Amino acid sequence: MQPMPKEYNFAEIERKWRQKWEEMGIYHYDWNDKKRVPFSIDTPPPYPSGELHMGNVLNWTYFDMLARYKRMQGFNVLFPQGWDCHGLGIEIQVEKEHNIRKRDVPPGQFRHWCMELVEKYIAMMKDGILKLGCSIDWATEYRTMNPDYWRRTQLSFILLFKKGYMYQGTHPVNWCPHDETAIADAEVDYVKREGVLHYIRFPFEGTSGHALIATTRPEFIPACVAVEVNPNDERYRKYVDKTIVVPIINRSVKVIADECVDPAFGTGVVMICTYGDKEDVKTVIKHQLPVVMLLTENGRINENGGKYAGLTINQARAAIVEDLKTAGLLEKTEKIQQEIGVCDRCKTHVEILERKQWFMNTRKLTDRVVEAADEIIWYPDYMKNRLIDWTKSLDWDWVISRQRLFATPIPVWYCKNCGELILAQEDWVPIDPKLEDPRIDKCPRCGGKGFSGEQDVLDTWMDSSITCAVHAGWPDRPDWKHLFPADVHPSGTDIIRTWAYYLMVRHLALFDEKPFKNCLINGMVLGADGRKMSKSLKNYVAAPEVLNKNGADATRQWAAAGGATGSDIPYRAQDVEYGRRFLVKLWNASGFTGKLLVDYNPVSAKHVELQPLDKWIVCKLEKLVKKVTEEFENCQFNAAIEDLRNFTWHVFCDNYLEAVKDRLYNPNMQGTAKRLAAQHVLYEVLYRIIQMLAPVTPHATEEIYEHMFKDSKGFESLQVSPWPKFDVSVVDEEAEKNGDMIIAVMGAFRNFKAENKQALNAPYSSLTINAGNAEAADALKASFEDIKGTLKVEKLIITADKKTDGRQIGSYNIYFEAKQ
Ligand SMILES: [Zn+2]
Ligand SMILES: [Zn+2]
Predict the structure, then answer these.
(1) Which residues, at least 6 apart from 544, have a Cβ–Cβ distance to it below 8 Å?
(2) Which end of the chain is more exposed for a tag (fewer CB within 10 A), N or C?
(3) What's the pLDDT at 300?
């Protein structure tokens, strides 16, 4: 045993152990281990966005606590780390930084800039993850933008194509006119905005009457293909099947009847445009209406808009409203609160465009997703419904093609002569069809020799939705099913509808198997003002700042203790500071314990005579082992850390350590079995404490282990020491009950001294304790020396008398009188 350094220098300790653990290689997943049971964590590869934020800190602390706990439980833990590189966010940032649009430079140059930016962001995030002390196996690190990962994504596309899950179709899709790409339902955010409802007269053909239509989007008038009323609406039943003239463009369209029309909205008469919103899409399909596409990919009016062609949507709205006024067709306008869909990256109003796209037929998997969601264990349980509700709410298949540059190419070509689709063969990938021809001589259909590569690319979720298989070694390791499904998929409440959902559909379609067995959900981090932490709300705290100031172990305690798993947790600086104070307390208690144990040899201390107070803490500790183990098993990290901190601070430091000091210091006790018992219990209890704290505060506990325990326990690192096992035979309810009483006596007498403004070690000439009955008296007498020594009493008298003179001890029927 080596003496502990006086100061707890977290920066130095944390830096040292980060490096040492890496050198020891204790985080490496052993692919050849046939003995230990594997435990695989499906670490979601983050989207590199620069600095690590407190939300990331919460996520990674969860992953890491679980990894460390499972490692100590004896599992062969796979904790991989990848980076989900592609996507709009990076392209937008590159366009901003270089002040260009993506089409202004050669694609190779643009891609190079994207990769450069991604590397810069990865370096920043990785630094933060390392500082947090995450026990990642860095040998597994991967980047979805690298050809080796393209290979996996493209292979998954080919397999799904062959299974009939991939199809091309001209179908309306969500479209971001700013980013000029299709986006999936999951990338649409809904926001409340104020709009203007325009009441417009649509004249009936051949008569002088008109229908009054209320719309927030008059710019879509040129794309109006029908007018619709509810057949149960008395006011308008007479309109059905009449012909009406669309103003401005003078197109004659029919009035159709549909019960979907809400008679209470606007006037109860609506125009159907292609496409103003998702409802229009449904109506067009149901009533087989013609389609008049009005918008270009960059959000301008196209040739179908006649004289408005070339205008932006907003310009067209203004011009059309003016023209309606001039024609006397605008009856009135009123303001209205509306909910509209915006692009989750750039917040532009999402439009609906019809364009040839690739789709994955995800809706046919809805029942399977619901079934799998039920099979999976969710922490917390109720989060399951978020996935189920989302799955059931989807109206459209997943549009997987994007009109972007920085993404995995779709491994497909078309014959220039006959249009035949050529799918890459499985051993061609990775391949970029924009740069390379298919590896065939001629078109299998017409014999043509010219091919054009698919220009569209894959949605970035196509990369990151196969991680459960990729982490397991698919497709290269023949034994990849050994690690599949993943044991746990950790996720945030905000990405259930994307990450959890896409993982589900892709793995179910590819392998007919759910991707993971457990799903651990973390909440969002809130700022000090109770709102979700964000840079724009000015309640943002940068993770490097917190980590540098307080260290990883203190910060991790905040993440663990902040709230129940799955709930949102506030960031409060005082919670991190409390974590640091706790570590100082643990550090000092360990140092003090070390001093009490200078003459203790843990290896030779075999036969010890446990005293009542020893049995008391041993019993309490055993119950703590049971409770904390259950809490880690159920991912109740907040309960586990609170129980551990309470036990350490109060049961161990405030009570036990104080109560046995005299036994250890008193010259009369030297060499006795009773003294050895106290040393033995101090040593073993502290060991168990640091073991159970190790998943949450790995650095400080490892340093304590190194100084005090490594020589005798013999494990290379506390991180690979076996997690304590609950031993019911150690639980002694009687000893615990008696110990509680003894601790209460000591506490009461100390309070008494404090009230009299005396030092806690102020000597007293006599103390008489009237225990009220023989049983209590006997129990107290069994700890006679500990009580006498701890309370600094020259003459201690314990009786079974039922006297109520003097002071009562807590709620016990025990009274004491003391003389100085
Ligand atoms: Zn956008
Ligand atoms: Zn052909």
Answers:
(1) 51, 52, 127, 128, 131
(2) C
(3) 94
* Ligand 1 center to 177 CA (angstroms): 7
Torsion, Cα of 370, 373, 374, 375 (10° steps): 130
Does an H or E element contain 199, and which? Answer: strand 188-203
Instruction: Map residue 735 onto helix, strand or coil.
Output: helix
* DSSP classification of residue 173: E
C-alpha of residue 387 to centroid of ligand 2, in Å? 43
Which secondary-structure segment (H or E) carries 816?
strand 815-819
Residues 6+ apart with CB under 8 A from 232: 259, 263
Give the start-end residues of each E strand in 204-322.
210-215, 224-229, 243-246, 251-257, 269-273
User: pLDDT at residue 536 above 80?
Assistant: no
The answer to whether the CB of 485 falls within 8 A of the CB of 39 is no
CB 110 within 8 A of CB 94: yes
Cα–Cα distance measured from residue 798 to residue 749, given in angstroms and rounded to the nearest whole number: 14
Q: Is the dihedral of CA 144, 148, 154, 156 positive or negative?
A: negative
* Per-residue confidence band for 768, with pLDDT thresholds at 50, 70 and 90: very high
pLDDT tens for 447-483 read 999 999 999 999 999 999 999 999 999 999 999 999 9
| CA separation for the pair 538, 486 (Å, rounded) | 38
> Which ligand is closest in space to the CA of residue 175?
1
Number of H helices, E strands in the chain: 24, 29
State which amino acid sits at residue 571.
Y
What pLDDT score was predicted for residue 206? 84
Tabulate helix, strand, coil % of the chain (nearest 5): 45, 20, 35
Q: Cα(104)–Cα(668) distance, rounded to whole angstroms? A: 89
Report which bound ligand comes closest to the CA of 447. 2
Let me know: does 360 contact 396? Beta carbons within 8 Å. no
Nearest ligand for residue 444 CA: 2
Name residue 523's amino acid: G
Name residues whose C-beta falls within 8 Å of residue 627's C-beta, 6 or more positions apart in sequence: 643
Amino acid identity at 240: V
Q: What is the DSSP string of 403-432?
A: S-SSSPBP-EEEETTT--EEEPPTTT-S--
414 CA from centroid of ligand 2 (Å) = 8
Q: Ligand 1 centre and the CA of 324: distance in Å?
A: 31
Radius of gyration (C-alpha) of the chain in whole angstroms:
35
> What pLDDT digit, counting tens, does each position of 281-313 carry?
889 888 989 999 999 999 999 999 999 999 999
Closest by Cα among 102, 135, 108 to 25: 135
Confidence of residue 170 (pLDDT cuts 50, 70, 90): confident
Stated as kind and residue range, the H or E segment containing 794 is strand 793-799
Classify burial at 23, counting beta carbons within 10 Å of its beta carbon; exposed 0-12, middle 13-18, buried 19 or more: exposed
Q: Out of 177-191, 232-246, 328-342, 625-639, pick the least confident.
A: 177-191
Closest ligand to the CA of 189: 1
Q: Which amino acid is present at 418? A: C
Instruction: Work out the number of other CB atoms within 10 angstroms of the CB of residue 596.
Output: 19
Any idea which ligand is nearest the CA of 351?
Answer: 1
